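Quick illustration, no need to memorize.
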Amino acid sequence: MLTRKKFLGLTAMAMAAPVAAPFISSAKAADKPIVWKSSGHGPASDPSQIYHDKCCQAITKASGGRLTVKPFVGGSIVPAYKEVDAIHDNVLQMAYTCPMYNLDKWKAAGLISSRPGALPGEALRSWFDFAGGADLMNKMMEGYNVMTFPGALSPLPEEVFFHSKVKLEGMQSIKGLKARCMGDGGEIFKRLGAATVIIPGGELFEAMQRGTIDAFEYSTLASNWTMHFNEVAKYVYLSSTRAPSDPQVFYVNKDAWAKLPEDLKEIVVAVVAKHTQDQHEYLVVESLKAVEKFREAGNEVLRVPKDIDEALLAEADKFYAEKSKSEKPIFKEIYDSMKTFGVAYNAIK
């Protein structure tokens, strides 16, 4: 298993030399290439899918072709959001997806996701890489042929609170709202009276057109602009309460990882860490630009009413207090770890 100590060494190596410069002996170059299949979780236009594909290509290049990682768009190999199951079954050897899409297996996965009251992006990445987050996630996944490692999480900026056809006037607007909400946030909104449903990101545009839903949460301003959501929802609501970050994680098959030579493991870790951080920084900049793009397209970009923010956070506190008592011990372990880190992080801000 990749420890934090070893990750520090790999990170130092990555900073010292360009990841695309292969350091391959002639003997190793003659080895039979290892071929992995990797899938993103979104449509081709989603920046997360684009960075997934870039990462796969960069691993192939940095390894001199000794490890060829073939990228696939979300839903093309297995149904969307079933990528981790496919890794467990060795249909895929790697995937880049959201932890909360695996709540059917691990209730604690929703904690390391775009959830109400979570850590903001910068803090989440630090917690995952250097404060035990990756280790806790692997502990959560024990019994499955799946693992992750420090550097594999891209926190991403805060998500759009909602794209909506309906103007939110206060908590009365949440009651009965037909909304796509994923993960723990979906459960919490349901407790607040919303009619929540689970819909893959690639199907949201059509769902809004058909009237299946009136509002939805999905990713960052930058990602959502590229998916043309301005055409199906007049209102863009912003707030950091629902999803202070939009984390996505690279997962790998344990058996496939164990078979990799050490130098190839180092390349995978270094390249993945670079691309997850690059995607985060890119989306921060592009999201700032996207605010004006949405406005120029005729959308109203608004802050979420204060009473909705307050009700959401209050209900989230109750939800996680209940879950910490009723779920497996790993749930409370992850929740307490993140909460303790968040208190310390906020104390220096």
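The chain has two domains: 4-156+248-284, 162-244+299-324.
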